[in-house]
């Protein structure tokens, strides 16, 4: 009996989906595309792109970051990160200062105006998250998030 390479992996740890013909990677990819589309739609009226929202979130979490660090954590190329940072700096959302330890590195940091824009973006995105998890038990949603974070660590590792 040969294994079908397109059939989803079934194990005790992975509950069976109602549409068991779909691979887990396909479902996660579909979710990613749907989230990107919806997030872009709700952020646009705020004058924010998804890349800018992600970058602002990363800067808030890290405090300061170089362009290269920001690109890596925002899932964009360094060239794209530079464009995103130029646009955000021109709007007063981020400041740039030379890294005191490395003369050629510029550190990026959120400004108060950037934080205010981020807060508005977070409220818009929170509404999508609430809709996405509607009808899902809070414990189940937390367990799923933990599993997804494990998937990310496994693939980065």
List descriptors.
Arc Repressor Mutant, subunit A; mainly alpha; 6 helices; 11% strand; disordered N terminus; 3-stranded antiparallel β-sheet; 157 residues
Walk me through what this model shows:
With 157 residues, the protein is mostly helical. It has a single domain, classed as Arc Repressor Mutant, subunit A. The chain is built from six helices and three strands; from the N terminus they run ααβααββαα. The chain has helices at residues 24-43, 50-62, 67-74, 78-90, 112-132, 138-156, and strands at 64-66, 94-99, 102-110. It has a three-stranded antiparallel β-sheet. The longest helix is centred in the C-terminal third of the chain and has 21 residues, at 112-132. Mean pLDDT is 85; it is low at 1-13.
Topology pattern, helix = H, strand = E: HHEHHEEHH
Structural class: mainly alpha
Question: How many structural units, i.e. domains?
Answer: 1
CATH domain topology = Arc Repressor Mutant, subunit A
List the uncertain runs: 1-13
Please give the count of helices. Answer: 6
**In whole angstroms, how far apart are the ends?**
33 Å
Gross morphology is globular
Mean of the pLDDT scores? 85
Strand order of the largest sheet: 1-3-2
Largest sheet: 3 strands, antiparallel
Based on CA atoms alone, the radius of gyration comes out at 19 Å
Q: CATH homologous superfamily, by name?
A: Winged helix-like DNA-binding domain superfamily/Winged helix DNA-binding domain
Q: CATH top level?
A: Mainly Alpha
Oligomer: single chain
Report a brief summary of the structure:
With 157 residues, this protein is mainly α. It has helices at 24-43, 50-62, 67-74, 78-90, 112-132, 138-156, and strands spanning 64-66, 94-99, 102-110.
């Amino acid at each position: 009996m040969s294994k079908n390479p397109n059939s989803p992996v079934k194990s005790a740890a992975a509950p069976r989906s109602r549409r068991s013909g779909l691979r887990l990677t396909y479902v996660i990819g579909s979710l990613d595309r749907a989230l990107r589309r919806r997030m872009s739609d709700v952020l646009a009226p705020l004058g924010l792109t998804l890349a800018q929202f992600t970058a602002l979130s990363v800067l808030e979490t890290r405090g300061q970051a170089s362009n290269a660090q920001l690109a890596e954590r925002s899932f964009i190329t360094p060239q794209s990160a530079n464009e995103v940072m130029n646009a955000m700096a021109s709007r007063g959302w981020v400041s740039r200062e030379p890294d005191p330890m490395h003369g050629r590195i510029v550190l990026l940091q959120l400004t108060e105006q950037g934080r205010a824009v981020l807060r508005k973006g977070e409220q818009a995105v929170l509404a999508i998250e609430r809709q996405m998890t509607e009808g899902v038990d809070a414990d189940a949603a937390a367990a799923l998030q933990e599993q997804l974070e494990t998937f990310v660590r496994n693939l980065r590792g």
